[in-house]
Amino acid sequence: MMNNTLKYKNFFATIKFSEEDEAFIGHVEGIDSIVSFEGQSVDELKQAFKDAIESYLDFCKRKGIKKQKSYSGVFNVRLDPNLHRKIALTAKMNGTTLNGFIKRAVESELLQTECQ
């Protein structure tokens, strides 16, 4: 199974392969800075990721800035109107709000994903 992400010290990176450069290119997600790295082999890529994170952590410490991106807890989701209606009615029938229903659905999905 191909997983296009790496994890190190609670940091995640997305990985793409550049045919032009014949290299794996990584980009750290969930931070306010732009941190990229690359490697021509999987081992090189993993080491470059670790090195990039260690360098980023050192930079944050020296500058006194937050390591992780801040999230407000609010985001918009676009749905098909029929799906929106079904969710709203189901939430109402279950004695909860649309927001509460969606929150529980996302939490449930995350639990299933984390267990795999």
Could you give a quick summary of the protein structure above?
The chain has 3 helices and 4 strands; from the N terminus they run E-E-E-E-H-H-H.
Summarize the SSE layout with pairings.
Layout: E1 5-8, E2 11-18, E3 23-29, E4 36-39, H1 42-63, H2 81-93, H3 98-115
Antiparallel strand pairs: 1-2, 2-3, 3-4
Helix pairs in contact: 2-3
Any overview of this molecule?
The protein is α+β, with helices and mostly antiparallel strands and about 120 residues long. About 45% of the residues lie in helices and about 20% in strands. The chain contains three helices and four strands, in the order ββββααα. The protein has helices spanning about 40-65, 80-95, 100-115; strands spanning about 5-10, 10-20, 25-30, 35-40. A four-stranded antiparallel β-sheet has the order 1-2-3-4, covered by helices on one side. The mean pLDDT is about 90.
Our count of domains comes out at 2
Strand order of the largest sheet: 1-2-3-4
Q: What is the H/E string?
A: EEEEHHH
Helix percentage range? 40-55%
What can be said about the biggest beta sheet? 4 strands, antiparallel
Oligomer state of the chains in this structure: single chain
Measured between the Cα atoms of the first and last residue, the distance is 13 Å
Give the structural class. Answer: alpha+beta
Mean pLDDT: 90
Are there runs of 5+ residues with pLDDT below 50, and where? Answer: none
